[in-house]
Amino acid sequence: MAISTREHPAPMLLVLVFRWCAFAWMAIVAAIGGQVREQAAAVAVAALVATLGWTVWLTLAAVRRSGLALAIDLALAVGLVVAGGFFHPAQHVLTNHPSVTGAYPMAAVAAWAVVRRVSGGLLAGAVVAAALPFAYALNRAPLAELSFSQSLTMTASGLSYVLVGAAVGTASRQFHRLAQALARSSSEAARLAERDELAARIHDDMLQHLALLQRKGMDLAARGDVRPGELRALMAEVRAQEKALRDMVVSGTMVAPHGSACLTAALEKLPGTYGDLAVQVLASGSVVLPDNVVDEIIAAVKEALTNVVKHAQATQAWVSVLEEDSGLTVFVRDNGIGFTFSEEKVRAAGRLGLLLSVRARIERIGGTVAINGRPGRGTEIELRLPG
C-alpha cells in the first residue's frame, strides 16, 4: 500500500482561520478605533477591500500552496505594513495604540512556513520585517532620533515576524512527519490485517480442500485401475482450487489501462457458452494487450471452439495461455476424433473457418497459427504472437 506524500491540509486550514480572525480585527480597529487619518481613509478602505478579496479567493481556490499564490500573499503583507504607516495618524507607530494592519501579515509568514518549512518562514518574516522602516518613515517617525526603547520596539516587531516564521515552520515540519508516520502505521496495520485474513481463509478453505484431494488421489492410486473420467474429474478439482487460490491472493479486479484489455479475463467468459462442450480456461495472472489484439484473439478462439462443436465430436476443450519472453501462445485443445490437417482438404471440405476466421485474424496482428491434428486423440491449435 503506497503512502501518500501529499501535505496534510490541517496546518494551512489553521492559517486560513487566522486570516479571517486577522481581517475581522482589521475591520474592527478601522471602524471604531479612530486609527485612520481622514485624508487617507480611501487608502485604508482599499487595503481592507484588497485583503477581503484575497482572503475570500484563498478560501475558495485550490492553489493555496502554489509559488505564485505565496508571492502575491507576501506582496500583500508588505503592502499592508507600508500602507498602515501611511494612513495611520502621524507617529502612530510610536504609540501603544492598536494597528489596523499589524496582524494580517503574520498569516502570509505562516503560510510560507507551512509550505516551505523553516527556511520559507524565516525568509517571509525577514521580508515583512524589512518593510517596517518604510512604514515608520511614512508615518513620520524620526528614524534617526528614535529612543532606545522605540528602536527596541521596532526591532521586536520585526523579530516577531521572523520568530513566527521559524516557529510555524518547525511545527509544520514536525506535524508532517507525524502525519507520515501515522499513515505508515495505518498502512502496516491494514497490510497485517489483510495478511491475517488471507491466512485464515487459506487455512479454513484451501487446506481442507487440498487434504480432500490428497485422499482422493491416494484412494485412486491404491485402487490401481483408474478410469480416465475419474482422473479428469480429480484434475478439474485441482484446477478449480488453483484458480480459487490465485483469485484469493490477487485480490481485486485488474483494471487495464485505456486502450488495453485483459486477455485472461476475456477468455474466462467463454466457458458455458458452447452447449454440451465443457470448456476450461487454464491461465494464471493478467495478460494485458491492446484492445484490437485481444479482440482478434478472442474471435479466433471462439471460431476454433465453434469448429470443435461442429466437427470434433468432443466433450471437452481446453484453452490455455503461455506467456514467455519470446512471445505469447494461446492453445485450443480438444478430446475429439482429431484429423490430419491439410489446407487443401480443409478448403475442399468447405471448412474455411479455420483459415479465414482463425488464421487470417491472427496473421492480421502479426501472429502465426499452427494446427496439430491427431486422429483419434483430438486437435490442438496454437495461436502464436511474437514478444
What are the SSEs and their pairings?
Layout: H1 10-32, H2 41-60, H3 67-87, H4 105-130, H5 132-138, H6 148-223, H7 228-249, E1 260-262, H8 263-267, E2 278-282, E3 288-290, H9 291-312, E4 316-324, E5 327-334, H10 343-348, H11 353-364, E6 368-373, E7 379-386
Structural write-up:
By secondary structure, the chain is an alpha+beta fold. The protein contains 11 helices and 7 strands. It has helices at residues 10-32, 41-60, 67-87, 105-130, 132-138, 148-223, 228-249, 263-267, 291-312, 343-348, 353-364, and strands at residues 260-262, 278-282, 288-290, 316-324, 327-334, 368-373, 379-386. The strands form 2 sheets. The chain has a 5-stranded mixed beta sheet, covered by helices on one side. A hairpin with a 5-residue loop joins strand 6 (368-373) and strand 7 (379-386). Helix 1 (10-32) crosses helix 4, helix 4 crosses helix 6 (148-223) and helix 6 (148-223) packs antiparallel against helix 7.
Please provide the count of β strands.
7
Count of DSSP helices? 11
Low-confidence stretches: 1-5
Question: How many angstroms does the end-to-end distance come to?
Answer: 31 Å
Mean pLDDT: 82
Strand residue percentage: 5-15%
Helix percent reads: 55-70%
Strand order of the largest sheet: 2-4-5-7-6
Largest sheet: 5 strands, mixed
Shape: elongated
Taking all Cα atoms into account, the compactness measure Rg is 39 Å
Order of helices and strands: HHHHHHHEHEEHEEHHEE
Q: Structural class of the helix and strand makeup?
A: alpha+beta
